[in-house]
Write a structure and sequence with these properties.
The chain has one helix at residues 2-39. The protein is mainly α and 40 residues long. The relative contact order is 0.09.
Length: 40
């Protein structure tokens, strides 16, 4: 039972980190498109 809880916490941390990275990359892509629109 205890090990299952640890695995669950690890999964939560992993998904949180993955989601954060995804959002960050999404923001970078949005900034890039905004910059491209300015130059064109």
């Amino acid at each position: 039972m205890r090990s299952e809880k640890i695995v669950h916490e690890k999964k939560k941390a992993f998904y949180g980190y993955y989601f954060f990275c995804f959002r960050w990359l999404d923001a970078q892509a949005n900034l890039a498109t905004l910059n491209n629109k300015k130059t064109i």
